Amino acid sequence: MIADGVEDEEKWLAAGIAGLQQNAFYMHRALDSNNLRDALKYSAQMLSELRTSRLSPHKYYELYMRAFDELRKLEMFFKEETRRGCSIIDLYELVQHAGNILPRLYLLCTVGCVYIKTKEAPAKDVLKDLVEMCRGIQHPVRGLFLRSYLAQVSRDKLPDIGSEYEGDADSVVDAVEFVLQNFTEMNKLWVRMQHQGPAREKEKREKERSELRDLVGKNLHVLGQIEGVDLDMYKDTVLPRVLEQVVNCKDELAQYYLMDCIIQVFPDEYHLQTLDVLLGAFPQLQPTVDIKTVLSRLMERLSNYAASSADVLPEFLQVEAFSKLNNAIGKVIEAQPDMPTLGVITLYSSLLTFTLHVHPERLDYADQVLGACVKKLSGKGKLQDNKATKQIVALLSAPLEKYNDIVTALKLSNYPRMMEYLDSETNKVMATVIIQSIMKNKTRISTADRVEALFELIKGLIKDLDGSPDDEVDEDDFKEEQNSVARLIQMLYNDDPEEMFKIICTVRKHILAGGPKRLPFTVPPLVYSSLKLVRQLQGQEENPFGEEESTTPKKIFQLLNQTVETLSNVPAPELALQLYLQCAEAANDCDLEPVAYEFFTQAYILYEEEISDSRAQVTAIHLIIGTLQRMHVFGVENRDTLTHKATGYSAKLLKKPDQCRAVYACSHLFWVDDQDNIKDGERVLLCLKRALRIANAAQQMSNAARGSTGSVTLFVEILNKYLYFYEKGNPQINVAAIQSLIELITTEMQSETSTPDPAADAFFASTLRYIEFQKQKGGAVGEKYEPIKV
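== Vacuolar protein sorting-associated protein 35 ==
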């Protein structure tokens, strides 16, 4: 059925075009022969094709445009006729003898334009006559196109200021009256279209009406172009008349489109000075009109106007634009109780953008907007509408983008209350936006109160908001989120130790509530921030004023011990061990032996009880040895205990090469350059000999299992340790031991059972070159190395 209807319409259009072209042909012939009567006859017959009711507006427009082009030629002919002495008044009378009203009126409008150009009658009188006569066509589509033609041909002939058709002082008023009257009649016809035809085709008619909206809006555009319409005339005549028509038509499509037209075509300063009148119309519109979009566009235009020049800002203050817009939004929401949440948030988002542009210094205004939005959303709980939550993110991001400073946003009391309406995922998005703003602007947050407020805002990243962990979270996203929190923790700083300690306690309170999955990301930056504070306090006397409340390194270390201990619930023993050793080193620098010993004890317990993976054990034992070697705070007894344990762990590693390397590393625990009391040459030699025995055992095992002795890398590494301690002056390391080790390596490399290893060969060759280099230095070093034969 629909296909048949479309085909029929195409046929009717083709027939209409054919009839129009045929009569146009005869009209042209009459024009060429200056035959006025035939020209009028055939032009009337041509225009009769526009009397059809069978075409949709879209198809009718095609037919109309062809007729319009022909009427341009007819107008040129009428001009020529008047030049040849034909009376325009007679011509004006003559065209009114056409048999049908529609052709008659098209011809009348065409002659009327020529009449105005001759200036034989005031333009206002001719225009008034034409606009009144057009009332004769009440069919919506035909009437709209006729009046559109009148508007088109008369727009350059209005008696405006500076126009050649300007008459007495009231001429501008007449021009405005003409356009307003035409607009009013066109709008009535446009609205009436919805009642033409059966109810089942209402949707189709609405679509057709939407296609015709620009015909009506063109009148408002013409009004906006009239030079003589100043602010007073706009305020007293134009706006009230247009709004009266908009409100009274009670049609959703017309009200939405025309309100939008008003906002777009008239100047911003006019809107500002007539805010009361304009905003007063919004609550009177139909409940189904999309007011949020129109009102948002108004606020956007005013925001851009305010941003265009600082000189216009006093105007906004003078007319109290903020309070008027705020009140208007409240009334609109009350007038439309069914307005969706998205609409409410969009309105307040636009108002906030307006406020930040016009009154950036008035934080109370921004907070008032957020508060009003919170009030309207109260009782709705977490929002499930994706568009609404995205709009809240836009609303909350606006102050961050404007001030580039989260500290300013933290002063807005309603800011966190708005975030309560976000679901868990969107809360994370907003928290990430806040952190990115801090990073980008390098914002310094330096008080515990502000840190508390900030962490309340970003709690979506710090803990599971719904109380239960979400197992469906993407692992990479989760890591990125937690790393951003870690970076944030590093940026929290205050020069005052007391305040910094409060900040650390505040952060600790929040991150410990985040659950075991987050702790490996958030505990390390907290520990390092705390150690930074310890370094700041280093060397400070213990409680210089005897105040129990003052921050001391010991107090921080107690907090650190409890904090690192939480990682055992994760479990993350390797990370905890690293942090214990970092804390031990800091305690060493503060000369706090009991504290350092306790941290080492905790590290050893973790190593024994929690770290079972052989690779993790190797890494851990080297960390332990490296940290212990730098310790100077321990007494003989404590150091011996810890050293004995470390060497014991080294010897118990699973793989022989790992054992060997850990044991020779332990040699450094007995010889520390900058500590004269730790230079035990014998125990160094014992470690190196033990390492040699383990290396030898590793070769034998390799030979038994694979039939080859394997690489000599371990022996070369041990040779380097021998050379190191020999150079440092260890009396137990002599030339004979080094010489025998070099010969052993040479023999092993030449053995048939050894496995070729280019890396080991290069390492050994490099070691021998080093010995030669030291010999060539001369002096004490040269003498020391001279006896070694390579």
